[in-house]
């Protein structure tokens, strides 16, 4: 498959045609070699809490200054993020506005942080790499942007803001009402009209705005729900963490929809919060 082996990613299985859906790792992952790198977008919450010690802001380092984000972008380049539009979006979105006041000094470190309700904000390196992967989809390559995007797992809304600075239409779904409300409030000052926040079960996708050119999941289940594939446009690409049945091991899976088939590829190990069905209070 053209364009899949973006720098920084390790593809651990060759692309495969027409997998059964819902896609499960015991079907796709039989020939996987052991992943070489583990991306940890959402560390175990206990670790995130342990590291999240309130610190005094460094003198002269205002979080509203572009310099802090420029430094983060330099670090993203150093670890292999190459797409200039992704780097520009990461440099533009004020991540410190999405984390608790006590944690703002860590907002531009490559770390996940607690956002309440047992969830975390994803690491900048993982957000940027997953969006880079999305941009490798056929429709995204043709248009130069991710097109119509569906994000599953809004959380505090950070990744939705990054996606909205790249795409003409973004729908982001969250199943926890307090987080959906939090994201709405945090995004209000910068919220563009083309970003739609939905309170709902993302496992069902969001049919009213389908089909999507890009689908990105911020939570990992043990199958890619068939609804996501149904709502993926021809030429569209889905990027999601997928858990190997019976284990805690997750890998990043990319599914490309062509006119007559779906092709999937498996990338390196990741560690996302679980994808859960139904609504949570
Ligand atoms: N996108 C966020 C990461 C949020 S963490 C960021 O920008 O950092 C993942 C989120 O997925 C959690 O808020 C969790 O509640 C949500 N989630 C899990 N299962 C879901 C489902 N079925 N539908 C919608 N959201 C879900």
Description of the molecule:
The chain is α/β, with parallel strands linked by helices and 281 residues long. It has one domain: Rossmann fold (3-Layer(aba) Sandwich). It contains 9 helices and 13 strands. The protein has helices at 25-28, 45-51, 66-78, 84-92, 124-134, 138-143, 158-164, 177-187, 226-230, and strands at residues 13-17, 23-24, 38-39, 113-116, 119-121, 148-152, 169-174, 195-199, 212-217, 223-224, 232-243, 250-257, 262-270. Strand 6 (148-152), helix 7 (158-164) and strand 7 (169-174) form a beta-alpha-beta unit. Helix 3 (66-78) runs antiparallel to helix 4. The chain is globular. S-adenosyl-L-homocysteine (SAH) is lined by residues 42, 119-122, 152-155, 158-159, 173-176, 179, 201-203, 218-219, 273, 275-277. S-adenosyl-L-homocysteine binds at residues 42, 119-122, 152-155, 158-159, 173-176, 179, 201-203, 218-219, 273, 275-277.
Count the helices. How many? 9
Oligomer: single chain
C-alpha Rg, in Å?
18 Å
Order of helices and strands: EEHEHHHEEHHEHEHEEEHEEE
User: On the 0-100 scale, what is the average pLDDT?
Assistant: 84
CATH architecture assignment name: 3-Layer(aba) Sandwich
- Main pleated sheet: 9 strands, mixed
Bound molecules: S-adenosyl-L-homocysteine
CATH topology: Rossmann fold
Low-confidence stretches: 1-10, 28-38, 55-60
How many strand units?
A: 13
How much helical structure, as a percent, in the residues?
Answer: 25-40%
CATH H-level homologous superfamily name:
Vaccinia Virus protein VP39
Shape: globular
Please tell me the total number of domains.
1
Alpha-carbon distance between the two ends: 42 Å
Which CATH class? Alpha Beta
């Amino acid at each position: 498959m053209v364009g899949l082996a973006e720098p920084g990613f390790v593809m651990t299985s060759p692309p495969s045609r027409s997998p059964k859906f819902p896609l499960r790792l015991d079907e796709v992952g039989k020939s996987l070699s052991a992943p070489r790198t583990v991306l940890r977008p959402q560390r175990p919450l206990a670790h995130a809490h342990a590291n999240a010690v309130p610190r005094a802001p460094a003198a002269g380092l205002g979080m509203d200054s572009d310099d802090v984000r420029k430094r983060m972008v330099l670090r993203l380049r150093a670890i292999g993020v190459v797409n200039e539009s992704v780097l520009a979006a990461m440099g533009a979105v004020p991540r410190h506005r999405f984390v608790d006041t006590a944690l703002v000094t860590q907002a531009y470190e490559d770390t996940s942080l607690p956002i309440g309700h047992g969830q975390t904000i994803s690491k900048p390196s993982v957000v940027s790499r997953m969006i880079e992967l999305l941009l490798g989809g056929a429709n995204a390559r043709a248009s130069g942007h991710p097109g119509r995007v569906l994000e599953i797992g809004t959380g505090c809304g950070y990744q939705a803001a990054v996606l909205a600075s790249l795409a003409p239409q973004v729908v982001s779904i969250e199943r926890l009402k307090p987080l959906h409300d939090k994201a709405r409030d945090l995004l209000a000052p910068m919220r563009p009209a083309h970003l739609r926040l939905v309170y709902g079960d993302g496992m069902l996708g969001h049919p009213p705005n389908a089909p999507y050119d890009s689908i990105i999941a911020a939570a990992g289940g043990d199958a890619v729900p068939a609804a996501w594939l149904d709502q993926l446009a021809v030429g569209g690409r889905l990027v999601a963490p997928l858990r190997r049945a019976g284990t805690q091991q997750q890998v990043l899976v990319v599914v490309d929809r062509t006119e007559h088939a779906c092709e999937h590829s498996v990338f390196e190990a990741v560690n996302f919060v679980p994808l859960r069905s139904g609504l949570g209070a």
